[in-house]
Amino acid sequence: MRPACAAFIFAGSLLLAGCSGERHVHIAGTLLEGGQPLQPKENEEVTITFVAINPHAKVQIGNAEFEPSASSFTVHGPLNDGIPPGEYRIVVRCTPYQEDEPDRFAGAFSEEKTPLRYTVTHDRSQEIVVDLKARTVTNK
Question: What superfamily does domain 23-139 belong to in CATH?
Answer without folding.
Answer: Carboxypeptidase-like, regulatory domain (2.60.40.1120)
